[in-house]
């Protein structure tokens, strides 16, 4: 009853928490500073690889991996969405943790795609090194020249040509492409503009070093480059890859994209909840320890009310995400479509507001990088656009709501 | 996993839903009109008693009753809070239903108090006729002359005097006191101003017809008198009742009040969720069926976004209340103190906003009494004050939140 | 510089304020109670007529009257919109005052229509007794069966037939029609469904006692009937009036309605600002005088912040209305279209929020009719629908905003 | 009537607008890129100095300068606050413009302090080169180790010692200190902890190159360093300057700070209004030119409503700032204390919300630095803390509001 994790998940939660406290938190600020001050911030810090090795050794690795489907048993017995959710929440408390545990976007989503839609050969070539953390990947969908909130707008092309497919166009916000280990791009392009709206586009596996692929620049998201991962603007000029690099088949991109959506959004949202929880904790600690006008900050004006509102908002948001994870586990994406969009609307907005409050309690410090709050806030803001803007998700929720009554009118 | 009701509850939910659809909804408007147009609106409509009889016959009666504690087995095997919650939600869809099922405030809370704290004699005298629906009761706590949000402010007195207790003072918002069947008042008064803050007040059972009890007037709540139940302002002038009418003992009022709180707030909140759901349904139906500027209203401006936001808000609120009910069941009030206050803040505000949206989609009709929305809206507003104003509950939530960190500072 | 009133207006403001304090405030609660407790609340209280007489005697009468246009000099030298605005604000502090000063909706708008569009004969017959306060009037536009937010939806008909015009259909929210002195209805009906969207409807003067006019019922607005004025649902069955009762000409209704809009909305908004100011004053006084948890309420939690936010919101709203009045004076309605809609969106919402806060500080008292807050709150809510719902006005503002850039795209 | 600028101001407004369009806008992106890509971004771009020279030549220089007080005539005839306000709004449309016109914080505030409180010698030494744009300055008040929202908390010391004053402590958010031309620091320190709360602190002029002054680091504000100006953390270790560098006298810091407040906040707020206007313009243009789901973005969901709300919010905010400027001009700071705090609460929040909406309409582009929106958004956020957090200003507004009624209770 309720959303208590399974015994196996509970044990993992405790070990992840302990790893966070003993291995990651003590070095995180140092590692960020090392990256920031490095001659080349795009080179991953060696200490980071050590953390990964330690996490892997302890079995805290690829925990995002979904429950095995027939034919995928060799990739391990995954957790249910509901069991993974509190682990994702914990990793969200730290900007480093998702990477340390090999549970970061977009690699998780890309691995899921390969797991579910890849051929045995594709799994061997790309999935296995990704699961090993040996390589990294990017997802190339959003485009600078069209309103990408409507994914059918995508105009970059993937045109089959004999036993090859030819790719042209420009993508941006290809996250992770700045990393030196990024070797695989999953590209979505227009193949047949005359097909049904959702059958026009194709997904193709593109090795990063294919001729014609060029990272034009790395983009700051709210002034941060997120080194060493980065967000790239990428041009594709007559890029040719073998036709077998097409995932599933031409025109199947939307079908594949669908599969990525549910769990990916649950992960994003649970991490944001972890971030909001951490921010609330920082706010309370700061508010208790600093004094103005003769009182601890928490006792001034509406600060206690705001702390209460943050607690209420976090709790409601978490329950909605857990419920969504539960629905995904029990009814699949089709039974959770509205909920997946609901959390995507509710959680980033909630997180942004909670973090905003925490910043306010930190005064000038909240704007600096002495605290993780500024990065948390701009990160939460970015997630109101990434993976579909709020407005599109509200549209999905409304459509499903109206459908309940339309027939009966 | 999740908050699925038990098999027993599921069966009751279906029967309550069916009763609502077949027995209550078809006659509700008519019954309200009959009351409104009656020569004396304070006389309950005979048709209402018939509905009660039918509900009782079908076993849809006193479903709020908590799980039996030792010594109370004869009053039946109650439902858990989590199992009763969806039933309460259903009854909230109608203003009549809680009364039809003998599950309305404040009688439910008063019955719980008697069940838990009453002597065998008190149960026989008051609890049994209340459970039978033969009499009604009121709760006399709030006072016009002090800020009653701080319950320790209560100034009306209950002074033991030999084998009697003497009551003086003035109360208001004594809900239900306008009903001709109201025979019992539970009165809270100051006994010892020098005792500890939470040991000064006493609860006393006062028969409605005791000399010195006078209903000075019936109060409109946002312009509605809620006939035939009503909200009274009541003066107590040298009212004398036997000392054995004191519940538990002098100075024990806060201890008793505590026991009322948790379930009562879950009930209020679940009913509001039912009301919000019903309002959203009305909003969508209206928005689909009316046309302006050449389109159904739902397709104009931000209407779909507002419908989506309402869906998200209701879902989050419901999960928080279910989680609170679950905590009450598994950890008792002590383990759910923050959550009980969280829902009391979150749910009425959510309901008020959802209903406001529904009114807006109904245009002028939404302001009239052709739809239940105006009454729903002002009712939700009133619940931001009744049972403790939002601000006090936020204070509770904040205090518990701060306590997590205070020791570690 | 700024929005200081003229010397003449300043003098009137002071006299209106003094009249409010000495004549109206002392008797207002009593007068409301007398109406409420009367055998027939639809009969105006005699004391009310005395107040009107006194106001008129002091020259505080018809102050809303716009500046004279050529041909209307005999109706007096009106104030500019900017000069009348602070007077309207003052009258908004009391529910009675607008009537006492003969400055209440819808009579003001109806008088303006007659002044601007009436023939000499129509002025003599209807305008003069309205200016005298001898009769009252209603405006019959909104319909129960169509979404009236789109005024072109109006389906009741006004069909010329020889030297008569025949009226059929049903209207509701015809404010003022419950008053025994209401003798004139201004009716808007469909004449030519094939004409241009804004040339289909006609306005007709209909004497209240014309055969076929029936007040089907009086509607409560958020549970209040607003006796003795009321809001009626009115049926028109083969109602025949002389063709010269058509205002201006067939198909000219929208043109006439336009002229009503600007000043009427400024008046509504300024009255709401007065109501919000009065509510804030009540909130502060209550918050200073009541104590909970050992402190005056104003010093608890976020109460001071809410008071500050109310002050800021009122000040911003007032300035926007004054600016709109100033634009109406200097550039006419065409130069103030966006602003007139802006205030209609901003002010009722602001007032609703400020009053909500004041209610919260009054606890249960705020829900009762011991304070004007409950009526203020539901009244402000109603104004988010009356005179066009917020959504329609936002649409106007957006259209004008977009037009600034459309040509340049 | 209204807030029309004087003829002189109107002429300046037009020239500033034209300068913005012809001189600044065409090169701004380029200049920002040049700074960003420079080997040393802390070296001002030569092109910038050219712009300044051109602005100065055209008389668009030091326009912020307040109206001359006796003894200051040689520094020119300044504009009233109301006349300068729309010019400040224009400069806010560009991040560069305030610097180009020598009208940027904190130099403006520092120049005002010198103008009003400096000796003739101090004016000659510091004010004149500041007015010339030959040097720059910083203001050292906020401290990392105390809650600086309560300015009486400031713990860094300024201790008179014979004919010197000795300075010790640590400041941060000293804006402008990263610039190579920054030669003057105005330092606020504790002199006499036993004096009256507002008479403990002293302001001292400290040449940037005095031994013991060390910029420990430059702080990012929401990830931006704002090169070449920057925000510094500065340590002062046994810094000794002549006693005549004390402004006015020991213990007079609060008195001096007061004088800075009013106009400085009007400037900040008007610039934010310019930024919000510019963001709204970008939002509308983007919304008209991009298409999703077959429609221009502006016609999707609630976008038009949000554009309307932005227009309404900007207009209300602007009027409140103009009213505040007018009060400062006519009644001085004492007559505008509440309003100065009101705008400081209302305007940054409004700007943050409007810009947030504009970002949302820009999709991923809104997060990048291809548009000024990300910088605008984080800048508006920072201003909810800089110059006093919202909560402190709400406290001022509430205090003044309560004082209206306190005596009468």
Automatic annotation (TrEMBL), chains A, B, C, D:
Identification of the protein by name? Acyl-CoA dehydrogenase
Q: Which GO terms describe its cellular component?
A: cytoplasm
Family membership noted in the UniProt record: Belongs to the acyl-CoA dehydrogenase family.
Tell me, how does this one assemble?
Homodimer.
Acyl-CoA oxidase/dehydrogenase middle domain ranges (all copies) = 138-239
Give the organism the record lists.
Kribbella italica
Q: Which GO terms describe its biological process?
A: fatty acid beta-oxidation using acyl-CoA dehydrogenase
Output the superkingdom of the source species: Bacteria
Q: Give the cofactors, semicolon-separated.
A: FAD
Organism taxonomic ancestry: Bacteria, Bacillati, Actinomycetota, Actinomycetes, Propionibacteriales
Give the keywords, sorted: FAD, Flavoprotein, Oxidoreductase
What does the record give as EC number? 1.3.8.7
Q: Gene3D superfamilies attached here? A: Acyl-CoA dehydrogenase/oxidase, N-terminal domain, Butyryl-CoA Dehydrogenase, subunit A, domain 2, Butyryl-CoA Dehydrogenase, subunit A, domain 3
Please give one Pfam family short name.
Acyl-CoA_dh_M
Q: Which GO terms describe its molecular function?
A: flavin adenine dinucleotide binding; medium-chain fatty acyl-CoA dehydrogenase activity
Stretches assigned to the Acyl-CoA dehydrogenase/oxidase N-terminal domain? 9-133
Top enzyme class: oxidoreductase
């Amino acid at each position: 009853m309720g959303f208590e994790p399974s015994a196996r998940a509970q044990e993992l939660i405790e070990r992840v928490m302990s790893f966070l406290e003993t291995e990651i938190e003590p070095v995180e600020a140092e590692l960020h500073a090392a990256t920031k001050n490095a001659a080349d911030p795009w080179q991953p810090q060696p200490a980071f690889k050590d953390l990964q090795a330690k996490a892997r050794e302890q079995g805290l690795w690829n925990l995002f991996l979904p429950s095995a489907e027939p034919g995928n048993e060799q990739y391990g017995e995954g957790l249910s969405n509901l069991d993974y959710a509190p682990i994702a929440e914990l990793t969200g408390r730290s900007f480093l943790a998702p990477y340390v545990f090999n549970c970061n976007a977009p690699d998780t989503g890309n691995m899921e795609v390969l797991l579910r839609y890849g051929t045995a050969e594709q799994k061997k070539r790309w999935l296995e090194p990704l699961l090993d953390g040996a390589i990294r990947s990017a997802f190339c969908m959003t485009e600078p020249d069209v309103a990408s909130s409507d994914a059918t707008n995508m105009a970059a092309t993937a045109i089959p040509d004999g036993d090859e497919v030819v790719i042209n166009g420009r993508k941006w916000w290809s996250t992770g492409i700045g990393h030196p280990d990024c070797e695989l791009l999953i590209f979505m392009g227009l193949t047949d503009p005359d097909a049904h709206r959702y059958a026009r586009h194709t997904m193709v596996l593109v090795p990063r070093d294919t001729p014609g692929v060029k990272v034009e620049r790395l983009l700051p998201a709210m002034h941060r480059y997120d080194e060493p991962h980065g967000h790239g603007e990428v041009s594709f000029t007559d890029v040719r890859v073998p036709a077998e690099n097409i995932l599933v088949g031409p025109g199947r991109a939307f079908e594949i994209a669908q599969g990525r959506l549910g769990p990916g959004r649950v992960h994003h949202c649970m991490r944001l909840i972890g971030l909001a929880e951490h921010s609330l904790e920082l706010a309370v600690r700061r508010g208790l320890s600093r004094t103005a006008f003769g009182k601890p900050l928490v006792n001034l004006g509406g600060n206690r009310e705001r702390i209460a509102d943050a607690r209420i908002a976090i709790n409601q948001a978490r329950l909605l995400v857990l419920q969504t994870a539960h629905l995904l586990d029990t009814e699949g994406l089709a039974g959770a479509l509205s909920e997946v969009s609901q959390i995507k609307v509710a959680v980033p907005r909630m997180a942004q507001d909670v973090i905003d409050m925490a910043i306010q309690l930190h005064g000038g410090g909240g704007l600096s990088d002495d605290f993780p709050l500024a990065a948390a806030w701009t990160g939460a803001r970015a997630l109101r656009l990434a993976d579909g803007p709020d407005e599109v998700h509200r549209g999905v929720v409304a459509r499903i709501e109206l459908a309940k009554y339309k027939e009966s009118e």
